[in-house]
Amino acid sequence: MAVSDADFYVEQGEIVGLIGPNGAGKTTLFNLISGALSSDKGKITFKGEDITDLKPHQINRRGMARTFQTTKLFADMTAFENVRLALLYGNPDRTIRRREAKREVTKLMASVGLLSDRNKPIRDLSLATQRRVEIARALASNPDLLLLDEVMAGLTPNELSQAMQLVTQLRERGTTIFMIEHVMRAIMEVCDRIIVFHYGSKIAEGSPSEVANDQTVNQIYLGN
Asked: Cα–Cα distances in Å, from 107 out to 41, 94, 103, 110, 112?
Protein backbone atom coordinates (compact mmCIF):
# COMPACT_ATOMS: atom_id res chain seq x y z
CA MET A 1 0.00 0.00 0.00
CA ALA A 2 1.19 3.50 -0.80
CA VAL A 3 0.17 4.79 2.64
CA SER A 4 -0.64 2.48 5.54
CA ASP A 5 -1.64 3.43 9.10
CA ALA A 6 0.01 6.85 8.87
CA ASP A 7 -0.90 8.26 12.27
CA PHE A 8 0.61 11.69 12.96
CA TYR A 9 -0.18 15.33 13.73
CA VAL A 10 1.13 18.80 12.93
CA GLU A 11 0.77 21.48 15.58
CA GLN A 12 -0.05 25.08 14.74
CA GLY A 13 3.15 27.10 14.31
CA GLU A 14 5.42 24.11 13.67
CA ILE A 15 7.72 23.30 10.79
CA VAL A 16 7.44 19.53 10.37
CA GLY A 17 9.55 17.61 7.87
CA LEU A 18 8.59 14.39 6.10
CA ILE A 19 11.47 12.28 4.80
CA GLY A 20 11.95 8.80 3.40
CA PRO A 21 13.36 6.93 0.39
CA ASN A 22 11.92 7.46 -3.08
CA GLY A 23 8.62 5.63 -3.33
CA ALA A 24 8.00 5.74 0.43
CA GLY A 25 4.57 7.34 -0.06
CA LYS A 26 5.37 10.93 0.89
CA THR A 27 3.73 12.70 -2.05
CA THR A 28 0.82 10.25 -1.92
CA LEU A 29 0.30 11.31 1.68
CA PHE A 30 0.27 14.97 0.60
CA ASN A 31 -2.24 14.10 -2.12
CA LEU A 32 -4.49 12.47 0.46
CA ILE A 33 -4.26 15.40 2.88
CA SER A 34 -4.94 17.99 0.17
CA GLY A 35 -7.82 16.05 -1.41
CA ALA A 36 -6.11 15.17 -4.69
CA LEU A 37 -6.58 11.49 -3.84
CA SER A 38 -9.37 9.76 -1.95
CA SER A 39 -8.43 7.47 0.92
CA ASP A 40 -9.73 3.91 1.26
CA LYS A 41 -9.97 4.20 5.01
CA GLY A 42 -8.93 6.40 7.89
CA LYS A 43 -9.67 9.99 8.84
CA ILE A 44 -8.00 13.32 8.10
CA THR A 45 -8.75 16.19 10.46
CA PHE A 46 -7.81 19.82 9.91
CA LYS A 47 -8.46 22.49 12.53
CA GLY A 48 -10.89 20.14 14.27
CA GLU A 49 -12.91 19.38 11.12
CA ASP A 50 -13.09 16.08 9.26
CA ILE A 51 -11.87 16.85 5.72
CA THR A 52 -11.43 13.24 4.57
CA ASP A 53 -13.92 13.39 1.71
CA LEU A 54 -13.58 17.04 0.69
CA LYS A 55 -12.39 18.20 -2.73
CA PRO A 56 -9.07 20.07 -3.12
CA HIS A 57 -10.74 23.48 -3.59
CA GLN A 58 -12.88 22.92 -0.49
CA ILE A 59 -9.81 22.07 1.57
CA ASN A 60 -7.95 25.07 0.16
CA ARG A 61 -10.74 27.39 1.19
CA ARG A 62 -10.58 26.03 4.72
CA GLY A 63 -7.01 27.24 5.04
CA MET A 64 -4.66 24.69 3.46
CA ALA A 65 -2.47 25.20 0.39
CA ARG A 66 0.31 23.25 -1.26
CA THR A 67 3.09 23.24 -3.81
CA PHE A 68 3.95 20.32 -6.10
CA GLN A 69 7.05 18.22 -6.63
CA THR A 70 6.88 19.16 -10.31
CA THR A 71 5.77 22.77 -10.58
CA LYS A 72 2.14 23.19 -11.72
CA LEU A 73 2.12 26.77 -12.99
CA PHE A 74 0.43 28.39 -15.99
CA ALA A 75 3.41 28.64 -18.34
CA ASP A 76 1.81 31.18 -20.71
CA MET A 77 1.05 33.59 -17.88
CA THR A 78 3.46 35.84 -16.02
CA ALA A 79 4.51 35.21 -12.45
CA PHE A 80 2.29 38.10 -11.36
CA GLU A 81 -0.74 36.69 -13.20
CA ASN A 82 -0.26 33.26 -11.62
CA VAL A 83 -0.26 34.74 -8.12
CA ARG A 84 -3.14 37.13 -8.84
CA LEU A 85 -5.28 34.24 -10.06
CA ALA A 86 -4.69 32.42 -6.77
CA LEU A 87 -5.54 35.54 -4.80
CA LEU A 88 -8.85 36.01 -6.61
CA TYR A 89 -9.79 32.33 -6.53
CA GLY A 90 -8.57 31.49 -3.05
CA ASN A 91 -10.48 34.21 -1.20
CA PRO A 92 -14.14 33.63 -2.17
CA ASP A 93 -15.54 35.54 0.79
CA ARG A 94 -13.83 38.77 -0.28
CA THR A 95 -14.63 41.25 -3.01
CA ILE A 96 -11.20 42.24 -4.29
CA ARG A 97 -10.91 45.22 -6.62
CA ARG A 98 -8.28 45.26 -9.35
CA ARG A 99 -6.14 47.92 -7.64
CA GLU A 100 -6.34 46.12 -4.31
CA ALA A 101 -5.38 42.82 -5.95
CA LYS A 102 -2.37 44.43 -7.62
CA ARG A 103 -1.23 45.90 -4.33
CA GLU A 104 -1.61 42.62 -2.44
CA VAL A 105 0.09 40.51 -5.10
CA THR A 106 2.98 42.97 -5.37
CA LYS A 107 3.45 42.91 -1.59
CA LEU A 108 3.31 39.10 -1.52
CA MET A 109 5.80 38.73 -4.36
CA ALA A 110 8.15 41.17 -2.68
CA SER A 111 8.00 39.09 0.49
CA VAL A 112 9.30 36.02 -1.35
CA GLY A 113 11.86 37.88 -3.48
CA LEU A 114 9.99 37.89 -6.79
CA LEU A 115 9.51 41.57 -7.61
CA SER A 116 12.16 41.68 -10.33
CA ASP A 117 10.60 38.65 -12.06
CA ARG A 118 6.93 39.49 -11.62
CA ASN A 119 6.27 40.39 -15.27
CA LYS A 120 8.20 37.50 -16.82
CA PRO A 121 6.42 34.48 -18.35
CA ILE A 122 6.75 31.35 -16.25
CA ARG A 123 8.56 29.51 -19.05
CA ASP A 124 11.40 32.08 -18.88
CA LEU A 125 12.02 31.61 -15.16
CA SER A 126 14.58 29.34 -13.53
CA LEU A 127 13.45 26.31 -11.53
CA ALA A 128 14.27 28.05 -8.25
CA THR A 129 12.21 31.10 -9.25
CA GLN A 130 9.30 28.95 -10.42
CA ARG A 131 9.25 27.29 -7.02
CA ARG A 132 9.07 30.70 -5.36
CA VAL A 133 6.13 31.55 -7.62
CA GLU A 134 4.41 28.35 -6.49
CA ILE A 135 4.97 29.32 -2.86
CA ALA A 136 3.65 32.83 -3.50
CA ARG A 137 0.64 31.40 -5.31
CA ALA A 138 -0.09 29.07 -2.40
CA LEU A 139 0.29 31.92 0.10
CA ALA A 140 -2.14 34.09 -1.89
CA SER A 141 -5.03 32.03 -0.52
CA ASN A 142 -3.96 32.96 3.05
CA PRO A 143 -3.36 29.40 4.28
CA ASP A 144 -2.94 28.42 7.91
CA LEU A 145 -1.10 25.28 6.76
CA LEU A 146 1.29 25.16 3.80
CA LEU A 147 2.40 21.82 2.31
CA LEU A 148 5.75 22.10 0.54
CA ASP A 149 6.72 19.20 -1.74
CA GLU A 150 10.49 19.23 -2.36
CA VAL A 151 10.79 22.96 -3.01
CA MET A 152 14.56 22.80 -2.41
CA ALA A 153 15.47 19.98 -4.80
CA GLY A 154 17.97 20.94 -7.47
CA LEU A 155 18.86 24.33 -6.01
CA THR A 156 22.37 25.78 -5.87
CA PRO A 157 23.91 26.27 -2.39
CA ASN A 158 23.01 29.98 -2.50
CA GLU A 159 19.46 29.28 -3.67
CA LEU A 160 19.13 26.63 -0.96
CA SER A 161 20.11 29.09 1.76
CA GLN A 162 17.56 31.58 0.45
CA ALA A 163 14.83 28.91 0.34
CA MET A 164 15.58 27.84 3.91
CA GLN A 165 15.41 31.45 5.07
CA LEU A 166 12.08 31.88 3.29
CA VAL A 167 10.55 28.83 5.01
CA THR A 168 11.66 30.15 8.40
CA GLN A 169 10.21 33.58 7.61
CA LEU A 170 6.88 32.03 6.62
CA ARG A 171 6.61 30.38 10.02
CA GLU A 172 7.48 33.66 11.72
CA ARG A 173 4.54 35.27 9.87
CA GLY A 174 2.18 32.66 11.30
CA THR A 175 2.06 29.93 8.64
CA THR A 176 2.42 26.33 9.76
CA ILE A 177 4.70 24.31 7.44
CA PHE A 178 4.60 20.61 6.58
CA MET A 179 7.37 19.85 4.11
CA ILE A 180 8.67 16.89 2.11
CA GLU A 181 12.36 17.25 1.48
CA HIS A 182 15.39 15.16 0.49
CA VAL A 183 17.93 17.91 1.21
CA MET A 184 19.11 16.90 4.67
CA ARG A 185 20.72 20.24 5.43
CA ALA A 186 17.35 21.94 5.02
CA ILE A 187 15.41 19.34 7.00
CA MET A 188 17.86 19.30 9.89
CA GLU A 189 18.24 23.08 10.13
CA VAL A 190 14.68 24.39 9.70
CA CYS A 191 12.37 21.66 11.08
CA ASP A 192 11.14 21.42 14.65
CA ARG A 193 10.15 17.79 14.16
CA ILE A 194 10.71 15.13 11.51
CA ILE A 195 8.53 12.19 10.46
CA VAL A 196 10.20 9.32 8.59
CA PHE A 197 8.27 7.20 6.05
CA HIS A 198 9.21 3.81 4.62
CA TYR A 199 6.93 1.71 2.39
CA GLY A 200 3.97 3.92 3.27
CA SER A 201 4.33 3.67 7.04
CA LYS A 202 5.80 5.91 9.70
CA ILE A 203 8.93 4.30 11.12
CA ALA A 204 10.26 7.17 13.23
CA GLU A 205 9.37 10.61 14.53
CA GLY A 206 11.18 13.15 16.66
CA SER A 207 13.47 16.15 16.75
CA PRO A 208 16.15 16.43 14.05
CA SER A 209 18.80 15.14 16.45
CA GLU A 210 16.62 12.22 17.55
CA VAL A 211 15.91 11.20 13.97
CA ALA A 212 19.56 11.61 12.93
CA ASN A 213 20.60 9.24 15.72
CA ASP A 214 17.87 6.67 15.12
CA GLN A 215 19.47 3.36 14.12
CA THR A 216 16.61 2.25 11.87
CA VAL A 217 16.50 5.59 10.04
CA ASN A 218 20.26 5.47 9.51
CA GLN A 219 20.08 1.99 8.04
CA ILE A 220 17.11 2.62 5.76
CA TYR A 221 17.50 6.23 4.67
CA LEU A 222 20.62 8.06 5.79
CA GLY A 223 22.96 5.22 4.82
CA ASN A 224 25.12 5.34 7.93
From this structure: 41, 18, 6, 5, 9
